[in-house]
Amino acid sequence: MSRTPVSMKCAKMSSSWICVMLCCTVMMSLVNAYPNLIYTTSKDIRMANMSKSTRINVIVKDLIEGSALDFYYKGSLICWADHGQESIQCVSYNGTHASNKVAILNTGIITPDGLACDWLTKKIYWTDGDTNRIEVASLDGKYRKVLYWEDIDQPRAVALVPMDGYVSS
Ligand SMILES: *[C@@H]1O[C@H](CO)[C@@H](O)[C@H](O)[C@H]1NC(C)=O
Ligand SMILES: *[C@@H]1O[C@H](CO)[C@@H](O)[C@H](O)[C@H]1NC(C)=O
Q1: Which of 22, 57, 122, 164 lies 20 to 30 A from 143 at CA?
Q2: What is the mean pLDDT of residues 110-138?
Q3: Which residues line ligand 1 (CB under 6 A)?
């Protein structure tokens, strides 16, 4: 069975607000008590201020094919997977400026569709639909480990419940 990655579907449509909301990875964060929506259009990463006068800022540019996205709030990190670059990258973001991109993982990453940051242990988990693995590493890319590789077919998403120690795919 072959499925089109979520970000590919989105790329074919116009990059309208609705398309992004329905198709792409969305994350909510709270900054200054206003919810902020962080999402990727696959070519960039944007943050929408959801106060009455919605403002959208592009915070990271020039992605090849961004897919999954998550953030580590306490460390001001935004991390995402890029299919085109076959890597997982992060920037630190202070509310107005993003640092240069850092590829924390760039080997053995082919189809990373799901990604989640564990804010308690400062780790990043991701799925790879090509290698059929779920892996983990620290947020600086060290201590990489394959967690699951058997009886998995095209994993596409991963979610964590760090307080209870759960990983769900
Ligand atoms: C969002 O917009 C509100 C009202 O315009 C503003 O007070 C707030 O600082 C903004 N938040 C961010 C993170 O820019
Ligand atoms: C964020 O970083 C930029 C560039 O280093 C700096 O000019 C700006 O003042 C910083 N903003 C905050 C809120 O720290």
Answers
A1: 164
A2: 94
A3: 31-32, 34, 36, 49, 51, 53
